[in-house]
User: What shape does this take?
Amino acid sequence: MTENEIAKLVVDAAIKVHSKLGPGLLESVYEVVLAKELERRGLIIMRQVSVPIQYEDLSFDEGFRADILVEGKVILELKSVEQLAKVHQKQLFTYLKLADKRLGLLLNFGADLMKEGIKRIANGMEEHT
Assistant: This one.
């Protein structure tokens, strides 16, 4: 399954979760429910995945944790805020670079409509879906 195929399934699942639970709950609630919804769709997920820093022959574990990794390919960073900030995008891009992944989705469950709360972040791949 490609990153783009995974992303389409994730977006569909996120919209379903958002429509059932509504906006504004704690991020941890959305993480648990979204993870289960993705598993129901047959996807392999990992939650709170450690993202170490690699520099030459050194490795640093600075406590970076990606919220959800889907199929070992797509990183999901969940938020529940009124509006996404540039720092949220930088956070996800950092995870993508350090984990050597090509695609991440920033999902803001605080948005009134889920489609307004989705930001696609690419690391060396085409921006289209």
Q: What stands out?
A: The longest strand covers residues 45-50. The mean pLDDT is 93. The longest helix spans residues 3-21. The chain has one domain: 3-122.
